[in-house]
Amino acid sequence: MTSTAGLVVGEEVFSLSHEMTREGIKAYADASGDQNPIHQDDEIAKMMGLPGVIAHGMFSFGLLSRATTDWLQDPSRLRRLGVRFSTMVRPGDVVTCKGTVASVDEDAGTAVINVWVENQRGERVLSHGEAEIAL
Amino acid sequence: MGETNPAYPQSPTDAEGKVAPPTFAAVYALGAGSGSLARLGVSPSRLIHGEQQFTWKRALRVGETVTAQGTIVDVYDKRSLKFVVAEAVVKDGAGEEVGRSRATILVLPEPNNGGEG
Hints:
The complex is a heterodimer. Chain A is built from 3 helices and 5 strands. By secondary structure, chain A is of the alpha+beta class. In chain A, β3 and β4 form a beta hairpin. Chain A is elongated, with a radius of gyration of 16 Å. The termini of chain A are close together. By secondary structure, chain B is mostly beta strands.
């Protein structure tokens, strides 16, 4: 189990990068059951006012969850994860999931981690995120 | 998703003592809310995920059955877009709550309706 004793507020606890591809987005659609055509069909996506297909927001959310539980090792220590979907992710984008310590409550045995996902231009695609974890 | 954490199954037969990744909740909890929108006749291509939060009381074991009950808790308009807030409570076979989902979903205007928002 990863030691979360002595977490320092502000310290970075994980960073995980992933390149989004059309194949990966299709695989996510099949695995999740979310077959919304804006993630697979450029024409329909454009009809909806998008520049073309975009990745599922939950794909990036899942990567953020993976980054968090890779760090925690025991997934049951993740109590809460929430984000805002701020910017579209398109095929070819490289997203990076990051977490820094926001606060530690030793008495309650919990900590809050600021979490976000940014693209290769440093824009936050998932923002205003928090994870609550058991120490 | 590229998960390699040994807590999760690494193959279809690797189930003993394994748990579901937390955001597998996208499969068992999220549909309970967006499914309600589909029943209202809103095409899925008009739905954009705005915000999402999950809370978990425990990890779900491979093989167990859970039930998600979805509720539309709020509907409001902002900047000519419609926002829907959907919650789902997930319970295990014993009726104990195992987790919750709260999603904010933007509903895009219908295409070709003559308006540019």
